[in-house]
């Protein structure tokens, strides 16, 4: 295809040159009209009766395909006249004829040439220089869109490498500053679940280019602790651009799972106002057990920016002891939310077929969400400032183990849980009934099939009879129940 | 922060292995970006190949890059590579069939 382009340019040049040279041939033919008899040049047959006064008198065959220029033509004319003079000397008869004609032509030419020269040239040789269309140009400039695209891709790749590097450095910095504390508290620090033996890997588990996990286990008072470093997607250029509109920050999420006897029954949360409102709507346990709106933390000495969601006042008093308040007040800007719950089951699950048939699985959990300081652009040193918060986490684990509600509180808590369960059962009553009905029908069908498949007619009969008796008994039982209810009602 | 310095809180016997949280229980926690981008990339590259649209092919390349950047490390690299190759082949084929430069839509 490129060769085609290369051929086009000389072709275009040839095309441009042709009208010029054709003009000269015409001039030649005009003159040759009379000389045709005498001059047996190749162009005799092309002679034309051309009265155009702008026709130049040229007897000599003009140079072919050469760009015409005025001085050259004038020279030819001069030459022509000189030649004529020479020619006329030879022949007398034709000479006069020729002379007349030629003088006529010469005069006309000399008269008119001066005026007509320039327009003649412009009429004869209209040199309109068109610009070559972009798609025929053989230059890189026409591919500017492609170059833009490739530049964009390169920018994306550069950002990917830089972002990935930054996230990795931040994660490593965090781990280096927290390693000692974790290793002194947990027997197993770092596990990806794949190795055969429970040996500490001693390093973070990279889930993504922006999420790092660390699993710690082997401690009193808890089953294990999962730490998730949720960084911003610095490796994705689109995300970087989106963040310029909507600033966000890196987060560290810690989830401590506890054994049954590690925690008493209570639900409690403290955090920023916005987060508390969001959690109360989203979280299953907070929405069920902490019905009241979040209260300001000022009553307990916390800064105004934080609010508290609690099952009952006693829980708040129990959790918010001096040390806790001290921790939270000192690092209030880094705390997003702290959530202690014995009924934790995650966020509310929206199911298509209405309510789920079973109560969701609950687990005794402590959840912490911390914001990394630096507002989206932290330095590795900022990771050190999160160390006191990890101390707070460890302290909370020990504290929750020791925290016990008094008798009243325990009764209230138990009542709450019973209430929640009842509500749930009521809501799903209809569905559970339906499910039970279908199960019963399934069983009957299976039994009938068994009887049918039974080959021995004796056994068949016996099984049928047994089934009939069972049905009869059920009907009798139901009738008894109805009678009892009727009696009670009366 | 002083623990009871006499006792070490670590317990070798209480070690529990890490179990990756299953995605069935938490469908909201998963980021759908890499999957969507993968799908988009494939659609655009097919459009670019079939309809000979250069800009489709370029967008497909971008989509597959974005999908790769957002992907989880546990994800199959074969999927990523196949999406890359498909989008690059769409670009190359568009230019082989029609080497004229792409014209902007405005």
UniProtKB/TrEMBL annotation, chain A:
Region named Disordered: 44-82, 426-490
InterPro entries: CCDC47
Composition-biased stretches (Basic and acidic residues): 437-479
Record's subcellular location: Rough endoplasmic reticulum membrane
Endpoints of the signal sequence: 1-23
Keywords: Membrane, Signal, Transmembrane, Transmembrane helix
A molecular-function term among this protein's GO annotations: calcium ion binding
Composition skew (Basic residues), residue ranges: 480-490
Domain of life according to the entry: Eukaryota
Membrane topology of the entry: Single-pass type I membrane protein
Record's compositionally biased regions (Acidic residues): 44-55, 71-82
GO BP term, pick one: endoplasmic reticulum calcium ion homeostasis
PANTHER family membership: ADIPOCYTE-SPECIFIC PROTEIN 4-RELATED, PAT COMPLEX SUBUNIT CCDC47
Homology family: Belongs to the CCDC47 family.
Name of the featured protein: PAT complex subunit CCDC47
Lineage: Eukaryota, Metazoa, Chordata, Craniata, Vertebrata
Automatic annotation (TrEMBL), chain B:
GO terms, biological process: protein insertion into ER membrane
Keyword Membrane: yes
Protein keywords: Membrane, Transmembrane, Transmembrane helix
Residue ranges, annotated region (Disordered): 1-30
Pfam families hit by this protein: ASTER (PF03669)
Entry annotated with the keyword Secreted: no
Residue stretches in coiled coil: none
Lineage: superkingdom: Eukaryota
GO MF annotation terms: protein folding chaperone
Compartments (UniProt record): Membrane
Transmembrane segments: 39-68
Family membership noted in the UniProt record: Belongs to the Asterix family.
Protein name, UniProt field: PAT complex subunit Asterix
Organism expressing this protein natively: Zoarces viviparus
